[in-house]
Amino acid sequence: MRQDSVLLLDSDVLITAHLIHYAPDYCPGFWSCLEHYLDAGRLLIIDPVRDEIDAPVELVQWVGRLPQHAFASVDAPVIQIYQRIAEWVRQNPQFTPAALNKFADGADGWLVAYALVHDATVITNEVSAPDSKNNVKIPDICHQFGGRDPLNTQDMLRELGASFEWRGP
């Protein structure tokens, strides 16, 4: 991966971090790290991902305090690729109607389309499940369309060179 590659955050990375792994009350360094790299332009949140984040309240407030340049809107080339992705999903007989509806209502396709168009890497906690009938997985969309393999949260932190060190009471 190029050292200057933009990393696109999936909503599950932020929600899971907030609720489980990096709660702000005991791991504020994680959130400061994200803020730093969002401000520097190395991390981005696309608008459809921002729209998915509707809980918990503290996370919604944190996202609301981010500078506008931390977010990216979809553009015409992204829309074109998204339409190709959505058509592939619709035409794929393995997916249940519920999976199709979930995909259509979510940001995952937009996230992959943005990554493909803007030569970025998706950060998600999803893992490949090519035989899944109930969910369209981000890694499988990336693979289908020749995108980079997504990174998970821990890989992102390593890529960024982040380190959270306990300094004692």
Report on this structure.
The protein is of the alpha/beta class and 169 residues long. Helix content is 53%, strand content 7%. The chain has a four-stranded parallel beta sheet with strand order 3-2-1-4. The protein is globular, with a radius of gyration of 16 Å.
Keywords:
single chain; 169 residues; alpha/beta; 9 helices; 7% strand
Helix-and-strand structural type: alpha/beta
Shape label: globular
Q: Number of helical runs?
A: 9
Biggest sheet strand line-up: 3-2-1-4
Please give the structural blueprint.
Blueprint: E1 7-9, H1 11-21, H2 28-40, E2 43-46, H3 47-52, H4 57-65, E3 71-72, H5 76-91, H6 97-105, H7 108-118, E4 121-123, H8 138-144, H9 153-160
Parallel strand pairs: 1-2, 1-4, 2-3
Helix pairs in contact: 5-7
Brief summary of the model shown:
With 169 residues, the protein is of the alpha/beta class.
